[in-house]
Amino acid sequence: MKRRKFIQNTSLGSLGVVAGATALGCKSEVEKDTSMIASKEQKPAPMVIATWDVPNAVNKAWETLQENKSAIDAIEAGCRVEEADAKNQSVGYGGRPDRDGNVTLDACIMNSEGDYGSVVYLQGIKHPISVARKVMEETPHVLMAGAGAQQFALEQGFEKENLLTEQSKKEWEEWTKTSNYEPVINIENHDTIGMLAIDKDGNISGGCTTSGLAYKMAGRVGDSPIIGSGLFVDNEIGAATATGMGEEVLKTVGSFLIVELMRQGRSPQEACEEAVERIVTKNPNYKDFQVGYIAVNKNGETGAYSIHPGFVASEYRETGKNTYAPGSFLKNAE
Ligand code: GLY
Fold this sequence. Notes:
By secondary structure, this protein is α+β, with helices and mostly antiparallel strands. The chain has a single domain (about 25-334), classed as Glutamine Phosphoribosylpyrophosphate, subunit 1, domain 1 (4-Layer Sandwich), CATH 3.60.20. The protein contains ten helices and twelve strands. It has helices spanning about 5-10, 55-65, 70-85, 130-140, 145-155, 165-175, 245-250, 255-265, 270-280, 330, and strands at about 45-50, 105-110, 115-120, 145, 195-200, 205-210, 230-235, 240-245, 290-295, 300-305, 315, 320-325. A hairpin with a 5-residue loop joins strand 5 (about 195-200) and strand 6 (about 205-210). The longest helix is centred in the last third of the chain and has 15 residues, at about 270-280. It is globular. It binds glycine (GLY).
């Protein structure tokens, strides 16, 4: 591939340089753009960003950062708030069940060293984000599933409990009267909590936790616990996480894509928009589901974008807390 053609293809002509082109087979023909890589002296200020309007979760993560704890501590603490909240019916305790009435949880966590831990199809444990961290820190593995993940959690001291609240049970019983599987955009389809944080040392970590799509088939796992899809962190570049229809995020490896686009010089906003457009381009039924992304780069700049309006992002940094509706593909297309 000629260098000029490659630059046109990547819409980066104005930058004149492109990095991380290995996947495009152009490595030998491009220069590395290091502009996004902050030096050790240029630490960004601590911050946290999360998918959806989750004030208690970002407050907790921010407080944790203020105690001079690490970004990974902030992520775990913040995600646990939503996992414990029965009113959040897409995460942890109170999460909506699969079509057989079982609450099955997925979560992952990734630190600034590139370490990663994940649990999929975990039942009866309220805090999958903490189990994921234990997988990362206490095992030689990165991903544990089902009964084995539960056994590991119990061995680590987690308690087994019933996660199906009366409210979620009642709604599921109502749903079984028709068993009509049509996830509702922005409600059942849905509010996975993805969170990214930068600590006082300028290190980035992320986490993602969900009960998955309401009334999914038994055994279904989405993007949230899968590295590169629901979450990806590269401490030299930035991080991204996803919410919404996991199947579409998985098919485009969305979070990894966003980080790699930032590596090539896109801003977090441009990278989120391009990842959403990738889904829209590939799936003509894109109006039937929601996907939202958030991202942060090494300088602490953020981006957020979704297919449908209705997606919300929450940030907390020294200047205060900000919950806002980012742009969306369908609104822009109006
Ligand atoms: N985004 C979470 C899921 O699809 O399960």
